[in-house]
């Protein structure tokens, strides 16, 4: 089922099919043992709407690894399935290191943009043509921009990232509605060699550049691993206020129900988004919305040796937790406007936990969570 397209006809799309590369995984580095507390002292909170009250769910999105290793037929079929369950947004990771692998020169009219650009053209066009709203996460530094230290290190000069982000925003100005600046910047898995101050510098360089490329798009504070209110507070203290239109977090809850009231102040709890919001309010930023740009539960068996932060759930539990997360967000956190499920489809990275978060299996069969989300969106979307 293809929904009506909003933005006219995309002219040319690239035809080069380039090798894909991964860009983001759920929740970043494993939580240290101290960050995962047994739920023996937890209580539950109500998750259903009050009698007679209409439940208004946040807009539902899915992390769609269109730049990863799938066939074009798989990409198309997966988007069609997401469309059928009522998904409004897709979140796509695009690597700066693949988009601009070579340092630009003064005589380069294309500003060094090549390699993965045709692939990104086609992936984004496929989503846009079906009527999805697109959020792109732009991350990973090319070697020329940081002395070859590796793609998870920020560039030596944040203006190089800003120029590339502006170019991208302008290129996809009719197709991409949001640009997320990096992924999980509080995690060494994704951002090394810097913490909140360096990230605030990157964010504040990218914000005006992206809006020059596309004044209508939104700039998103990169989703933190967990509800990392301490990192967010330090970013505000170093000037991040006014440098983003949306703040994002990744409130994974390990294998536990989101109904569990946090027994402590650790960031690895779904409902500690309230602590992030407290920081925003303290910095007079209550008008800025929040998005959950990743949240999910992995369906896999556990063994006695499975660490607590890598434990899986059953498919029935995944479906139940998805419904609970949507209800809790709608009832308790109206400032959270969008919820992106991680991920659209099971992956094949070799890591048992990372590979089983999907709404769909590798052969695109729906898990119960996909059916449950569809039912909720039809009733309350």
Using the CA coordinates, give the radius of gyration: 20 Å
**What portion of residues belong to β-strands?**
5-15%
Largest sheet: 8 strands, parallel, barrel
SS content category = alpha/beta
CATH topology name: TIM Barrel
The name of the CATH architecture is Alpha-Beta Barrel
Overall tally of domains: 1
The CATH homologous superfamily is named: Glycosidases
Description:
This protein is an alpha/beta fold. Helix content is 29%, strand content 13%. The protein has one domain (53-380): TIM Barrel (Alpha-Beta Barrel), CATH 3.20.20.80. It contains nine helices and eight strands. Helix 4 packs parallel to helix 5 (196-213). The longest helix has 18 residues, at 196-213. Residues 1-52 have low confidence and may be disordered.
Concise account of the structure shown:
This protein has helices at residues 72-84, 96-99, 117-129, 158-171, 196-213, 229-237, 273-282, 315-332, 368-380; strands spanning 59-63, 89-95, 133-139, 178-181, 218-225, 246-250, 290-295, 336-341.
Q: Keywords for this structure?
A:
381 residues; eight-stranded parallel barrel; TIM Barrel; alpha/beta; 13% strand
């Amino acid at each position: 089922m293809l929904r009506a397209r909003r933005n006219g006809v995309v002219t040319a799309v690239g035809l080069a099919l380039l090798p894909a590369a991964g860009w983001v995984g759920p929740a970043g580095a494993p939580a240290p043992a101290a960050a995962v507390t047994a739920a023996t002292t937890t209580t539950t909170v109500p998750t259903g709407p009050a009698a007679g009250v209409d439940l208004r769910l946040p807009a539902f999105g899915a992390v769609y690894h269109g730049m990863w290793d799938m066939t074009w037929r798989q990409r198309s079929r997966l988007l069609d399935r997401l469309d059928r369950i009522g998904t409004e947004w897709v979140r796509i990771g695009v690597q700066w290191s693949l988009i601009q692998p070579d340092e630009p020169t003064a005589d380069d009219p294309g500003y060094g943009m090549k390699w993965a650009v045709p692939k990104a053209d086609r992936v984004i066009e496929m989503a846009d043509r079906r009527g999805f709203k697109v959020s792109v996460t732009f991350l990973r530094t090319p070697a020329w921009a940081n002395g070859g230290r590796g793609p998870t290190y920020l560039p030596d000069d944040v203006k190089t990232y800003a120029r590339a982000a502006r170019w991208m925003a302008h290129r996809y100005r009719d197709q991409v509605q949001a640009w997320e600046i990096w992924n999980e910047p509080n995690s060494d898995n994704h951002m090394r060699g810097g913490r909140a101050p360096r990230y605030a510098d990157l964010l504040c360089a990218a914000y005006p550049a992206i809006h020059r490329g596309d004044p209508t798009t939104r700039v998103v504070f990169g989703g933190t691993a967990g509800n990392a209110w301490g990192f967010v507070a330090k970013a505000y203290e170093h000037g991040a206020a006014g440098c983003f239109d949306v703040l994002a977090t990744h409130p994974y809850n390990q294998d536990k129900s989101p109904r569990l009231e946090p027994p402590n102040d650790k960031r690895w709890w779904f409902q500690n988004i309230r602590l992030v919001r407290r920081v925003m309010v303290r910095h007079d930023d209550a008008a800025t919305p929040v998005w959950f740009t990743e949240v999910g539960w992995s369906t896999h068996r556990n063994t006695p040796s499975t660490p607590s932060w890598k434990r899986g759930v059953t498919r029935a539990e995944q479906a139940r937790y998805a419904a609970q997360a949507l209800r809790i967000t709608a009832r308790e956190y109206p400032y959270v406007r969008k919820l992106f499920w991680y991920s659209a489809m099971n992956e094949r990275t070799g890591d048992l936990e990372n590979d089983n978060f999907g709404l769909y299996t590798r052969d695109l069969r729906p898990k119960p969570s996909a059916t449950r989300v569809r039912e909720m969106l039809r009733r309350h979307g």
